[in-house]
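Example record

One chain of 177 residues, shown exactly as stored in the release files.
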Amino acid sequence: MNIIHKSDCDGCYVYMRYLSLFLLVVSSFALSGDGADSEIRYELDLSINYSKYVMSPKDIEWSNKLVNRLGYEGDVLHFVLTDIVLVEANKKLSGKIYQSVENPGRYYVLTGDIGIDTKLGIIGNAGAGGYSMYSPKSKKFIVCFNCGYGIPVVRHSTIYKGPIYWYGSNHIRQTLR
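Predicted structure tokens for this chain:
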């Protein structure tokens, strides 16, 4: 039977102290949970007057056929293209922001795959949580199934019908390219 003497473990205690200190320092840089942030700053102003696309009967028919073809039975949101300007790292972009027809406080930002809800004050990455989005070739509107709120964006201003900013990526959803 081997007996461990205190003198045999002196090095172990020193090692454990350094390991504990290292783990404490490393863990202090970690954020809990998931976040959809990146280093690109985005800005838009929802308080400025803007125009938006109006879906035609042909567009509604396209949406209904899509729902039937895919056998989807849940709620459907339609997002229509607006002329709201998106600022990406001080560069102005147009044709990137859509507004929900059924819930006008909800917006979808194509660049970065971002969902915004001004009524709830939420901004998140739409690519998470099961969003399923389709658009005809015109890209004038988007049909959205299972529109939840995705992974939250951590670094952002207050979300309301005014100027807002957030940090995200410039990823564009494959089905909307």
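Notes: Confidence is low (pLDDT under 50) at residues 23-35.
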